[in-house]
Amino acid sequence: MTIHKLNNLSEKEAFDELVKCCGSTNWVNSMVAARPFNDEHELLEKANIYWSQATEADGLEAFKHHPKIGDISSLEKKFANTKAWAGNEQQGVATATKAVIEQLAQGNQDYEDKFGFIFIVCATGKSAAEVLDLLQARLPNDRQDEIKIAMAEQHKITRIRLGKLMGDSVD
Hints:
Largest sheet: none
Number of helices: 11
CATH superfamily of the largest domain: Oxo-4-hydroxy-4-carboxy-5-ureidoimidazoline decarboxylase
Helix content: 55-70%
Distance between the termini: 15 Å
CATH class of the largest domain: Mainly Alpha
Mean pLDDT: 86
Low-confidence stretches: 74-83
Number of strands: 0
Structural class: mainly alpha
């Protein structure tokens, strides 16, 4: 997609495209309203500004748009509109051993039980073992610190997905 095309989509069409990048309704509405963008640099600048204004509730809403790391059935059912993107982002998990997948599943459950939301990590370029190490390293955090970390990870994912939306013309 080009900036010109994004700028000329209807509000609903723009919403439907941008929600693939981040599931926070407030963030998406802000991005839709910010159009027209002059270029991809401005698109990312606005994405940064609006995410920096996001509340915990915005983060929690965005997290609900992600499958659990390694949860392929969730990718297929609930997240059909971002399946290809999320699947590629979790490519390192797809080749993991059964033992690592089982540890990720247990770690995800422990994380969700403790914090009340799924483990969010920018998994692009990371092996399953690296993701597992990050999960285990973050489990001792308190909720206040963890929500900040998870929201920062969400922002990394959003930027990557904006790049994918724009045909990887943004960085």
